[in-house]
């Protein structure tokens, strides 16, 4: 198959999201003709950074003030109008990609392959089903193949500072119907690493008991320089905000170290963390499902274990 691949970049107009580079890694397994679409406003740093990837043949730039805070409603029409030149359109399987790509697929009237974890051939991929308990090999018969890429399954491509891919500016494209506009954005300020990109993640579940008790999770995370996560049960109980949820309906993580505290291990949660390099579980129930995927397990009362563990960590 003669492939022309378009990767939609996720960025904040200043830096490129790590999952974009992992999506490029997946694209390289499909074919060599790779272009990257950057939709933003005054985002020269992003353009230069992506251009340093030696696998990128060209960077297509849609610079518009409406893209200073890119909305999928306004960005999708750009990709659709460019789609005629490409056989594949890829995006990260992040909140950004899961919002953007389905809109593009709907406008093109094609199906989408979601959460791809392995590229088999240009039209065949592996993706998880049944909350990650099984893997399906799926072949697309669409004329244009759209897929979101699960970043935890791919290594990020490297940068070559001496390299600079050609830049093509596109203009005159429809930037949406004016029905959607950015209003505001609030971010929680934290010195901890971002959950999806952290090498160490400490997560708490319903067993932690309360919002106040979640301080034990925070203390261990701070000592290890890690990010904080939570099960859906902990989020639903109001212990932490939902942006910290790990699982099928939350963040998918694969850190070097994942510590699950007071988490029984519902399949939806394990779907979001079972690819972690080392998993440590702390739970009072020796039959808890979390121990089936854990490399190390501590059975006991977390309120006895955690203070001692925090004290032992330098």
Roughly what fraction of the amino acids lie in strands?
Answer: 15-25%
Q: What is the helix tally?
A: 8
Q: Which word captures the global form?
A: globular
Number of domains: 2
Instruction: Spell out the helices and strands N to C.
Output: EHEHEHEHEEEEEEEHEHEHEEH
Give the spatial strand order of the biggest sheet.
Answer: 5-9-4-1-2-3-10
CATH class of the largest domain: Alpha Beta
CATH topology of the largest domain: Rossmann fold
Question: How much helix is in the residues?
Answer: 10-25%
Oligomer kind = single chain
Uncertain residue ranges = none
Give the end-to-end Cα distance, rounded to a whole number of Å. Answer: 55 Å
Cofactor: FAD
Protein name: Electron transfer flavoprotein subunit alpha
Binding site for FAD: 206, 231-232, 245-249, 262-269, 283
Function: The electron transfer flavoprotein serves as a specific electron acceptor for other dehydrogenases. It transfers the electrons to the main respiratory chain via ETF-ubiquinone oxidoreductase (ETF dehydrogenase).
